[in-house]
Amino acid sequence: MFDVDLHTHSRFFHVGDGPTAYDSVGLRTNAFVARRRGLDAIAVTNHDYRYTAETALPTLPGVEVSTTRGHVLVVGPDPPAETTPGALTPAQTVELAHDRGCAAILAHPYRNSAARQSRARFDAVELNGKNPEHVHMTRRLAAELDLPLVGGSDAHYPFEIGRAFTRIDADELTPTAVADAIRAGDVEPVVDLGRIHRLLDRAYTRLHERKGWMDVVDDADVRTS
Predict the structure, then answer these.
(1) How far apart are CA 163 and CA 159, in angstroms?
(2) Angle at 181 between CA 164 and CA 131, to 5 degrees
(3) CB-side exposure of 58: number of CA atoms within 13 Å?
(4) Cβ–Cβ under 8 Å, residues 220 and 140
(5) Cα 129–134–135 angle (5° rounding)?
(6) Digits of tens for pLDDT over the chain (225 positions)?
(7) Does domain 2-224 have CATH number 3.20.20.140?
(8) Main-chain dihedrals φ then ψ at residue 172, nearest 5 degrees
(9) How far apart are alpha carbons 12 and 21 in whole angstroms?
(10) Where are the domains of the chain?
(11) Dihedral through CA 177, CA 178, CA 180, CA 181, nearest 10?
(12) Dist CA 99 CA 73 (whole Å)
């Protein structure tokens, strides 16, 4: 059994395209924090390009693909090195992931995304660490789609690492074994928010609402999440 944060970013800001000077510093700092928090590995899922490097903690290759209808995480042994934002549909992204031996995960399905309505055959649905108010809705969606749930922090800063992660039932901690476990449903999401992260969530929610990225959450969803 391994605890893995399946959604992390090694650069601090969305500035320009491709790698930036933040990557090396960000990745190593993320790995240090993840190790201190008891995680066994992190997946590095920058927007539309793959970046990995050796650290003291195992890192899994990945990419967060900006599809025509929202974001999809591709994690496994051979994610694409680079994708063009808005060029691939969710279904095409899933097909690309499977062709490369990777798992395709529907990321933050209720934030800036309509990918859940695409009928793409995802391997899992993500409980996103930035949007705990969507936990109940996301669990319900996964049940409707008959898909497993995974957890990812969506961390852009090291202190955010591990606020959501995935418990993976696998014999070894390799990209292939992790992708296989996700596809087989041998995973369990964990959302672990302390007081600081709950306060941050309120700030993220207000920011995303101002940008028009958030789906409406009713009172029953908030109470049950």
Answers:
(1) 9
(2) 20
(3) 15
(4) no
(5) 75
(6) 999 999 999 987 655 555 555 788 889 999 999 999 999 999 999 999 999 888 999 999 999 999 999 999 999 999 999 999 999 999 999 999 999 999 999 999 998 889 999 999 999 999 998 877 788 999 999 999 999 999 999 998 898 999 999 999 999 999 999 999 999 999 999 997 665 555 565 555 555 456 555 454 433 333 232
(7) yes
(8) -145, 155
(9) 10
(10) 2-224
(11) 110
(12) 15
Supply 176's token pair. Answer: 């292939």
Asked if 130 contacts 108 with a C-beta cutoff of 8 angstroms, the reply is yes
Give the CA dihedral 38, 42, 46, 48, nearest 10 degrees: -160
Who contacts 43 (Cβ-Cβ below 8 Å, separation ≥6)?
4, 5, 6, 7, 8, 59, 60, 61, 62, 73, 75, 152, 178
CA distance 76 to 225: 29
Q: Distance between CA 134 and CA 131 in Å, rounded?
A: 6
Q: Tokens 């650290």, residue?
A: 55
Instruction: Give me 181's structure tokens.
Output: 């476990």
